[in-house]
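re: ur msg from earlier - yeah i can do the coproporphyrinogen III complex, just paste it... oh wait u already did. ok heres what im feeding in:
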Amino acid sequence: MIQNDLLLKTLAGDTVERPPVWMMRQAGRILPNYRKIRAKAGSFKNLVTQPDWIAEATVEPVDVLGVDAAIIFSDILVIPEAMGLDYEIIEKKGPLFNDKIRSQRDIDQLIEGDVIPSRLPYVFESIKRTKTILNDRVPLIGFAGAPWTIFAYMVEGSGSKTFSEAKKMIYKEPHLAHQLLSKITSSTIFYLKEKIASGVNVIKLFDSWSGLLNSEIYNEFAWPYAERILTAIDEVPTIFFPKGGWFSYDKFGSSDVFDCLGVGWSTDPKFARQKMGSNRILQGNLDPCRLYDSKQNIEVATSKMLDSFGRNHIANLGHGVYPDTSVENVKCFIDSVKSYRYK
Ligand code: CP3
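and the outut:
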């Protein structure tokens, strides 16, 4: 039994007195002890493969910020790595892969499917250690990137504002794109099943680059693969976050393969509510930049956001918290949600 089960109750559609709150990218980026662990580790890659450090980074936000859920410290890029593409995180620049996927030969050489979990033992070991330290205080969220977002990194070879190489493959060589997306999908299903077996209580699927597509392309190259993963996960509740994917809300509104839809900061909560209906569970969506504002304004903006979503809501930011956000202001956001009560 989880002691603080507010998130699980909300995901089950139970009546609760306030929304649960946690933050995307809460583990890492802002907290002082994370920075110490990160410095000790030397590189992000070194940190993300060490179960003891991962457990520490995962639990810190629960202890320091009082959030209602923990998210395992890891990265969506461990999947391309397990499929055979080595990456580095370059300071202030982001991910960089040694190789890119551009041809049939590149796709044929990828590792995929049921062998993927055996290539990521540190992730599952981290989950087990984190569960021990958490001692069932709050639920633990496990996650993966949705196939389109992982595809974007594998084809582009790095982060990008446009992901034009990835979009080029979709338009010029759709048969290659579908093959790669299928391989990512099957690998991700085996990976998430092992995360669940290791103890995570909720799965979140991040489609961070949905907003680079339009409904026609999204509905052919992104949604069917995300849907396959969400359908395969029936052991625990799921949160699907197609960031900027408002153009496919009709599709999401008629789907029952996920339990909660994550709403990005650029989508109006009232639009999301209207498209998805009052009974659907929505998560989000305060603009992370609002946390640079005064405490008084953060309180006002948070309660306005909570009023707009109404019940069946998980409070969060509309994307990950930025590294230069003050911990005090983050606490102000968390505490504003915790003192809110539904009317
Ligand atoms: O939410 C959490 O706190 C758990 C940890 C987590 C990380 N990455 C740690 C991390 C999670 C959930 C992610 C997911 C992730 N990674 C996404 C999806 C969410 C989103 O923000 O859209 C994406 C697109 C990535 C890819 C990625 N990893 C990028 C673009 C970067 C570089 C810059 C940055 O800080 O985001 C990373 C590296 C990374 N992943 C860091 C952390 C804490 C920073 C590395 C460091 O400390 O050197």
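cool cool. The chain has one domain: 6-338. ping me if u need the other ligands too
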